[in-house]
Amino acid sequence: MKMIRNLALAGCSLLLLSQCATQDEVRELNYQIRAVNQKVEEVRTKAVGTIQKRQASSVSKIDQVEEETLRLKSRLEESEHRASQFRQKTGQDLATLEKAVAELRTENEQKIEELAQKVDRLNAAFSKVQQERIRAAEERAREAARRAEAARRRVVTAAGSSGGTVKVTPDRRKVRVGSGKVVAAAAPASGTPATRPAARPAEAGEKAQVQVVTTPDATAGPFSRAMALYKAKKYKDAYRMFEQVLSGNPKGAKAAETLFYMGECLYNQGEYDLAILDYQKVISNHARDPHTPAALLKQGMSFEKLTDHETAKIIYKKLINDYSGSPEAATARKRLANL
Predict the structure, then answer these.
(1) In contact, 260 and 282? CB cutoff 8 Å
(2) Residue 335 scores a pLDDT above 90
(3) Does position 73 have pLDDT exceeding 50, yes or no?
(4) 3-state secondary structure of 55
(5) Quick check: helix, strand or coil at residue 181?
(6) Is the pLDDT of residue 163 over 80?
(7) Residues 6+ apart with CB under 8 A from 317
(8) How far, in Å, CA of 276 to CA of 212, rounded?
(9) Is residue 234 within a helix (H) or strand (E), and if so which, with residue range?
(10) What is the CA radius of gyration of the chain?
(11) How far is the C-alpha of 237 from the C-alpha of 296, rounded, in Å?
């Protein structure tokens, strides 16, 4: 019985002890649960805050992206508008340029037509002057023939009345004319009667000042004689001699040079419009001759003398373009700069 009672007491004590242990464990577990819940709450709070921050940052970035997209769209629209304006302006500029080119073409065509008309007028004037010169030359030739015939008749009459023979010497001689100048007279043609003019005796106390005027060598060729007359500044006589040279051989080796010096004779006499025509014959018919650049230069200078500066500019530019390496082109550049 006592044993049972002891066992009962032991069981009760054990039960009490087990209950005490369980309550402590429950309290410990509750404490741990609260601590875990607190940590969970802290973690949750932190996570939510982080997520909210990240979300706010993402929203801000999205807003920035949208703003940047709007700016880019605005720039694209502005660029497209500017490109449209540029295309429109370019089209207008092209239309204006085409109009200006058409006006310049029309103006150039008018100038070319005016120049052609001017050349035609000059050619007509030249033909008229040439015809007048031919008629004048024929008249002079007829007059010379009449004088020669009259002189021959006078000589024959004088010879018949004197009953003798008149002897004419064809040698070259010097004849005193004017106030003591001595001119070398050309020998008359063989068989042509001639008379020797009487020399004027020098007055008392007068000192004879003799000046010998040379004439071209009769044995030289026609071109050389013409050049001698040109160098002696006898431009009219030189022109007539050059005309004879050209008529004798219009397509010879010296044709271009002859035409050029014919123009020079007229230029030095102030007949610039006629000189232009002779220079033009050199330019048109002898483009590769060495005298062509000089003919172009003198033609431009002739137009300058006639105060036609626009035509002179055109000729100088042609000379510079076609004969850029020639000395005449360098002169043309200087004269063009002064116009």
Answers:
(1) yes
(2) yes
(3) yes
(4) helix
(5) strand
(6) no
(7) 336
(8) 35
(9) none
(10) 61
(11) 24
